[in-house]
């Protein structure tokens, strides 16, 4: 369950930045094409914030959808999974969204 | 876990306006649905919002970058070997170590949740080895890699083979600072593994299809597996080998030589 390590990274970064102030909410961006399951992340967030300044904080998860641009036909299209195939049949595509894994913001005080 | 009462149910809880006291109705599998009065901490206005916009894995990536530059300075090539348990990673490593004897120093970082079993095998094959037991962890990370490299102290020009924890999901997300990533699949697994575990194949530079000596006995389509792997990673190279018989291993050694 890599979500535990990933969520621990989020909590570490947030607590460091909070500098002792209580953290009320944490907002993260987890693209649909990352191998991170939001429900697992929520579960791990409760575990990893226990006893820290972020204990009890709300976790807000934004999930950008998967999108790609085809280099053959120049069309943008939605990617439901990691199978990189444009509707035109070309596999020469560039992922433009869905791989984000970022801490967006937090609310303290 | 329910954020409201801490039970294992999947209820919606803990949402509301900051500074207010609200009732959040939610269903649970335990005795009866109920309503929790929830106190949302904080003052009206929501306190101070701090914009971070930072990568979640920034710390790991920074450490990995340091590992990568140290390895490059030493002329050492590190290859991260990943697979499901039982794909034949350790056997492939043993044969590689024996075939490289006298040609190039090989050092191995062994990642397993528990035991020294693989490290003992690697040592018997003639390589220096460091065992990293991850305990509950399901992958190696850049800090483990740094610590293992410090202990291992590979000589300049070495090939460092990192045998990651047997797992086709988690190791794909953690950069160790390696030169390249190899995913190993065996013909006793399903042809469609690349579609079932796309993140691993998307993150790899090379796929090695192992145990091809067993092809007459199993229902595995090498060409289709390669096709599936390329559907998630068009740049992925592939090799078919048998670490047991040695068939195809020359291609693997040529690929390694090409990493220098």
How large is the radius of gyration of chain A?
17 Å
**Overall helicity of chain A:** 25-40%
Helix-strand pattern of chain B: EEEHEHEHEHEEHHEHEH
Low-confidence stretches of chain B: 1-44
Beta-strand content of chain A: 25-35%
Brief digest:
The complex is a heterodimer of chains A (109) and B (260). By secondary structure, chain A is an alpha+beta fold. Chain A has helices at 2-18, 38-49, and strands at residues 23-30, 58-62, 67-70, 76-78, 93-97, 101-108.
Describe the structure.
The complex is a heterodimer of chains A (109) and B (260). Chain A has 109 residues and is of the alpha+beta class. Chain A is 27% helix and 30% strand. Chain A is built from two helices and six strands; from the N terminus they run H-E-H-E-E-E-E-E. In chain A, the strands form two sheets. In chain A, strands 2-1-6 form a three-stranded mixed beta sheet. A three-stranded antiparallel beta sheet of chain A has the order 4-3-5, with no helix packed on it. In chain A, helix 1 crosses helix 2. Chain A is elongated, with a radius of gyration of 17 Å. The two termini of chain A are 32 Å apart. The model of chain A has no long low-confidence stretch (mean pLDDT 94). Chain B starts with 20 loop residues before the first strand and ends with a helix. In chain B, the strands form two sheets. A seven-stranded parallel beta sheet of chain B has the order 6-5-7-4-8-9-10, with helices on both faces. A two-stranded antiparallel ribbon of chain B has the order 1-2. Chain B is globular and about 65 Å long. Chain B is 30% helix and 23% strand. In chain B, 43% of the residues are buried. Chain B is built from eight helices and ten strands. The N terminus of chain B is likely disordered. At the A-B interface, helix 1, helix 2 and strand 6 of A face strand 3, helix 1, helix 6 and helix 7 of B.
């Amino acid at each position: 369950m890599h979500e535990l390590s990933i969520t621990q990274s989020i909590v570490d970064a947030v607590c460091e930045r909070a500098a002792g102030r209580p953290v009320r909410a944490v907002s993260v961006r987890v693209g649909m094409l990352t191998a991170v399951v939001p429900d697992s992340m929520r579960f791990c967030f409760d575990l990893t914030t226990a006893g820290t300044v972020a204990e009890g904080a709300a976790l807000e998860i934004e999930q950008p959808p998967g999108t790609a641009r085809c280099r053959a036909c120049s069309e943008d299209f939605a990617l439901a999974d990691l199978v990189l195939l444009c509707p035109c049949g070309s596999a020469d595509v560039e992922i433009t969204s869905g791989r984000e894994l970022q801490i967006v913001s937090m609310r303290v005080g | 876990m329910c954020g409201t009462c801490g039970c294992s149910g999947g209820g919606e809880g803990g949402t509301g306006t900051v500074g207010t006291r609200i009732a959040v109705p939610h269903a649970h599998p335990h005795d009866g649905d109920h309503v929790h009065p929830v106190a949302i901490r904080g003052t009206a206005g929501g306190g101070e919002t701090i914009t971070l916009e930072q990568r979640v894995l920034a710390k790991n990536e920074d450490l990995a970058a340091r590992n990568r530059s140290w390895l490059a300075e030493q002329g050492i090539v590190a290859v991260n070997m990943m697979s499901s348990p039982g794909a034949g990673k350790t056997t492939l490593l043993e044969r590689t170590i024996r075939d490289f004897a006298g040609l190039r120093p090989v050092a191995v970082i062994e990642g397993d949740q528990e035991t020294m079993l693989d490290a003992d095998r690697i040592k018997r094959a003639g390589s220096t080895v460091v065992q990293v037991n991850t305990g509950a962890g399901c992958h190696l990370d850049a800090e483990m890699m740094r610590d293992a490299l410090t202990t291992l102290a590979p000589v300049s020009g070495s090939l460092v083979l990192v045998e990651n924890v047997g797992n086709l999901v988690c190791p794909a997300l953690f950069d160790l600072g390696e030169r390249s990533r190899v995913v190993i699949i065996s013909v006793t697994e399903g042809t469609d593994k690349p579609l079932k575990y796309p993140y691993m194949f998307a993150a790899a530079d090379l796929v090695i299809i192992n145990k091809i000596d067993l092809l007459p006995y199993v229902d595995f389509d090498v060409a289709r597996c390669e096709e599936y792997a390329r559907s998630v990673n068009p740049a992925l190279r592939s090799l078919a080998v048998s670490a047991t018989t040695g068939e195809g291993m020359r291609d693997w050694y040529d690929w390694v030589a090409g990493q220098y």
